[in-house]
Amino acid sequence: MTNQYPTAKFALPNGVVLGAILIVIVVIMYVTGMLYEGKQWPMYLFYLIFPLFIGYSIYTYRSKNGGFLTLGQAIKVGLAIAAISGLVYAIYNAIFAYIIEPDFADTMLDVARENMVKQNPNMTEDQIETGMAIAKKMSNPLLGGAFFILLSIFFGFIYSLFSGLIFKRENPYQE
Question: What does the H/E/C string look like for the chain?
């Protein structure tokens, strides 16, 4: 029976790196004003990086694990990386919202209101207020952070499952 490479030892640095990649993308969007303009294309880059990073990490874990990987190990590693990256981003988001730029949420709500009126000029004031109430709830950094962590874990599971199916290699000598 071979020793298994520790999941936590592997997932922690990889999750921090994936979270840092997202933070860099969001900071670039903030500094260049793309967040205020509602431009989403830099986030599409992250949506491409996320599954590739999870897949590559699982492949690397297999290499560190003597060339063997079970589907369960792949899912465990991928979920851990996704959860850690989501937590890293949620912490950054809370620091940004409460310390760095406390008025950011209000500014974004104003931008959202303007965009809502531009895109749907026939909306009644009640419809606008209902939409803004939902947007205000989601702009809470703690609620948004929790939601982001859950989404990260959900997609981490899906990408880990696929990666595990691709990269699994059972150890024939293991009981």
Answer: CCCCCCHHHHHHHHHHHHHHHHHHHHHHHHHCCHHHHCCCHHHHHHHHHHHHHHHHHHHHHHHHCCCCECHHHHHHHHHHHHHHHHHHHHHHHHHHHHHHCCCHHHHHHHHHHHHHHHHCCCCCHHHHHHHHHHHHHHCCHHHHHHHHHHHHHHHHHHHHHHHHHHHCECCCCCC
Tens-digit pLDDT profile for residues 54-88: 999 999 999 999 899 999 999 999 999 999 999 99
**pLDDT value, residue 175:** 61
Q: Determine if residue 4 is left, alpha or beta; phi over 0 gives left, psi from -120 to 50 gives alpha, anything else beta.
A: beta
> Do residues 52 and 118 make contact, with C-beta atoms less than 8 angstroms apart?
no
Give φ, ψ of 69 to 5 degrees. -155, 130
pTM score of the predicted model: 0.86
